[in-house]
Amino acid sequence: MNLRIPEQIIRNTEKIFHSSLRKQSTIVKPPSEVRQVLKLWDKAAEPVDPKTLDFPNLGFKHRAVPHWALTILSKDLGDKWVGPEKMAWDEKVIDIHNTNPYGVHGFEGTKCYRDAKGNVNLFRPDENWKRFNSTLSFTGVNTPLPKDLFIDGLKMVARENPDHVPPHKVGSGYMQIKFIDPTPFLGVDTSGDCLVSTMITPAGHYFPNGLEPVHMVLSDNLRALQGTGSNKVAGNYAPTILQKRNLLSRLNDQGIHDVRDLLYTSVETTNAPVLARNITEFRAGNLIAVYIENGIPTLVSPESDEVLPGITRNSLLELAMYKGWNVSRDKLTVQDLLEADEVMATGTAVVTTPVGKLTYRDDNGKFKTAVFNNNEVGSIAKELYDSLIDIQTGGPDPFGWRLPI
User: Fold this and answer.
1) Is 45 in contact with 89 (CB distance < 8 Å)?
2) pTM for this prediction
3) Tally of CB atoms within 10 A around 326
4) Residue-wise pLDDT tens digits, 281-295
5) Can you name the residues that pair with 358 across neighbouring β-strands?
6) CATH, residue 229
7) What percent of the chain has pLDDT above 70?
8) Residues of 135-158 as b/e, b for ≥16 C-beta within 10 angstroms?
9) Of 142, 171, 203, which marks where a domain is finished?
10) Does the first or last residue of the chain, that is N or C, have fewer Cβ atoms within 10 Å of its Cβ?
11) pLDDT at site 258
12) For position 405, what pLDDT does the model report?
């Protein structure tokens, strides 16, 4: 007797068979090392539970949160920006093989803070927006990002991750706004497309012990070329990583182990004697030198197309003028700097950090170390730090710098 097996049973049997083969294949063939690493990275990207956060001891490191924001510029939409769109932490929208390889990449950094009532405020986001568009334009992206979309992205990530913003005066929500050209392209140019990612992470102090003097070193290298340094392009920072490692290794050989970061001089004075070279800025922040004469402080901060127009630096200088102090945005040689009463590093991450010591190499290649204010926190740095933190965290704001989310 010939029995005819129904087609549905045949298909079901085939599915079970092939499924069994796949399972056997998975068991027999372990995942490659590449895929094992990718799984580890996915695991590391999972959001941190805010209940596990020790806010007073956060330190300055990245921690994943549940949501981020995506804004897009597309040539297919007639060079129009759209967004921001709320994205889940595991939503990936770009692959490394589908990106423009020519360095169309930059970023912004800012913070949000809780006030005493628990409300969250942004700090001068309009200034970040201006600088962001300057960097976009500098890298060939011709369509500016509208101000409302930029700020809406910041507000979105703060609102959607509320439990990850630290309590009042304990830390901040550190926010990065990154852009990249997401479309593969042959020929050195932009594709016409752009992705903007806005993220937030709970953060403590950049320097773990807060407001205390740090030891810096004068680099023999250049941080950025003219025109590049005044924009926040990723290429300004990558070369300094190896520079720092190499210089700190040489200092370790000299018995100097406490240097935190590098200070740079201008390309214009590269061939000048060391003391005659013009200061630009630190690896990740601006510089302010303080000179006190007859009890009146004068704050000097270099400004050129090699120097990033720092929002924290500008805020501190505006605070100084508000207090009746003198301010100068002028050239500053290494010799001028060595004569300062106080020196500060400033930036979104560090806010303002006193520089207690500066090591440099003289024209004979010998390392020397200058000490500022007896390697103690100076009164000007302390007053400016307290004043700025007070504004950021909900105190009187005569400038209108805070923006509620």
Assistant:
1) yes
2) 0.89
3) 13
4) 999 899 999 999 999
5) 216, 370
6) 3.20.10.10
7) 92
8) bbeebbbebbbeeebbbebbbbbb
9) 203
10) N
11) 93
12) 96
